[in-house]
Amino acid sequence: xxxxxxxxxxxxxxxxxxxxxxxxxxxxxxxxxxxxxxxxxxxxxxxxxxxxxxxxxxxxxxxxxxxxxxxxxxxxxxxxxxxxxxxxxxxxxxxxxxxxxxxxxxxxxxxxxxxxxxxxxxxxxxxxxxxxxxxxxxxxxxxxxxxxxxxxxxxxxxxxxxxxxxxxxxxxxxxxxxxxxxxxxxxxxxxxxxxxxxxxxxxxxxxxxxxxxxxxxxxxxxxxxxxxxxxxxxxxxxxxxxxxx
Length: 245
Fold this sequence. Notes:
- By secondary structure, this protein is an alpha/beta fold.
- The chain has one domain (about 15-240): Phenylalanine Hydroxylase.
- It contains twelve helices and six strands.
- It has a four-stranded mixed sheet.
- Helix 6 (about 130-145) packs antiparallel against helix 7 (about 150-165).
- The two termini are about 15 Å apart.
């Protein structure tokens, strides 16, 4: 089954206000010192590869040129959360839907839906990493293939949630962050690594059968040992899907 590609919007960079630049700078400068200590090295290297800085809101056209040289991915500008068929279809073609609006100064720490700091600062650096993006694209392909099966779509959504959005990685026996939902959240960055939540080893078959709640900070995080482990779990994911179709 084929789906029409979402038509990307323009970023309209000239419309960013002084407040937008101030918000990006504040969020970036507040988060980077923490991430330098607790984020996965692959994410931190991605920040350098993609040339993000505090004083400039990323230009999607420039970012896409850099992504093209690394993994062939690109950003597609969307107004907000898009429908599952469109989302999976974009991922399957190495395209990530991203918003370009920024939160306001009076709502720096809570948003009802993701803004550019989450979508771009949180997600894009790891789009330069091969094994991560191969896993990411496979989720999209599987979503397109099984879109009519609500149970399988829910399973893929859980994988996305507990890895791409809220995943942790064990690096040299030390927990680090790679999930974009944590990376872009000042409070959850510290909480996720504390002794309060549960830290469980990554198991795709378990995660695919573990519901999540998206209206509060997580109480359970799954920990991978490497991005290669994510990539090599694809066969397990396909086996679990086969048992549910």
